[in-house]
Structure formats: structure tokens, C-alpha cells
Amino acid sequence: MSAFDAVLEAIDQANARDPRHCEEEGSAPVPLELLYGIRMSLMGDSFAPDADELVRIAARGQHIERWIIPRDEYPRDKSGYFRWRNELKRHHSKRVSGIMAEHGYSQEDQAIVADILLKKNIKRDARTQTVEDLACLVFLKYYAVSFAKGHDPQKVVGIIAKTLPKMSEKAHAFVADLSLDTGLLEAIESAKIKLAAIEQS
Q1: Computed from CA positions of residues 12, 13, 18, 21, in that sequence, does the dihedral angle turn out positive or negative?
Q2: Exposure pattern of 68-105 as b/e (b: 16+ CB <10 Å)?
Q3: What is the mean pLDDT of each run of 10 residues along the chain (201 residues)?
Q4: How far apart are CA 167 and CA 156, in angstroms?
Q5: Contact assessment for residue 48 and residue 131, using Cβ atoms and an 8 Å cutoff
Q6: Strands, E, within the chain: which ranges?
Q7: Which end of the chain is more exposed for a tag (fewer CB within 10 A), N or C?
Q8: Which residues, including other chains, have CB under 8 Å from residue 1's CB and lie 6 or more apart?
Q9: 18, 97, 118, 144, 169 from 166: Cα distances, Å
């Protein structure tokens, strides 16, 4: 087994311990973050098939062991949300770079992946932007509809309006290939109108 494959397997083994499971119709329950990592990799195969292995490692480890830092441990306000997200990013970057070290990756490669997972230099670093694009595309394809079912339509539009600016032009164009739910497509168009109005104000 190559070092790259060993790292992906170690990430999957960690995420397979997620006590939360996704039960989709016609399939056995799957640990949530294990499924998320696989979806990130599959989206990468479609959206960025030429991405190097550091991008592919970062994509697979984007949510490694996400469940061990619960949202409920932080205040339910904007400040608490960002503290939670920042703590998650630090955990993801430390765990994945540690796994890479165990399998012989250089400190330079570990640092690159850590920076990607810390979301440093989005819009300026191609690797970081690619992983951010994948995260946004995976959200739109697999999670946005279920999120919408539990929230007010205007909140859904607001969340999408926050997601779209994070994406590259390439990712925006790729959305057309995702075969999204009609209602979600309408929410995306509403979010674009909202963003345009903000820019003009």
C-alpha cells in the first residue's frame, strides 16, 4: 500500500468511529463523517480529477473526527459558532498532519495540508480553494435539501448566499452538473439576487 492510500485508510478508520450514522433508503447505516469524507473524494474525482495527492488528502480529512467537538459545548451565538469552527479546523489539521507524519510525509507536505484545513489563503491558494469548492459542492449536492427541510426558506437562502461567495468561478459553473433539486436551484437563484442587491447597495 502506498503512503497516500495508507493515509486515506487511516482517515477512514478514524471517521468510522463516528457514533452518528446516516440511514439512507436502501442502504445500511454509515458513520456520518466516513460518508462525508468519501463524498468529498468522489466530488474531487469529478470536479478536480487532476488535483494532487495533498489536495485529495485534505479533502478526505476535511471533517475528521468532527463529532468529538460538539457544537453544544459553545454558546449558541455567532461568536460561539466561530469559536467552534476554529477549534474544529485546528483539530482537523493536527490530526491529518499527524497521520501523514506516521506514514512518511515530509514536514513541508504536512504543513501544506494543515494550512488547507485551516482554510488559509482561500481565493489566493489554489489547493485551499479547491478543497473549499469541494466542501461547498458537497453541501449543495448532499446536505442542502435536508437542511432546508428544517429551516425557514429565507434562512436557507441566507445560508446559500454565504456559501456562493466562497466558491470559485469554476465551482459556480460546475453546479449545473450536480442535478440539484428544483427547490434548491430556486433558492440558489434567490441567493444570487440577494448577493447582487447587496453589491449594488
Answers
A1: positive
A2: eeeeeebeeeeeeeeebeeebbebbbebbbebbeeeeb
A3: 97 98 82 97 98 98 98 95 97 98 98 97 96 97 88 89 95 94 92 88 74
A4: 17
A5: no
A6: 21-22, 30-31
A7: C
A8: 9
A9: 28, 24, 15, 16, 10
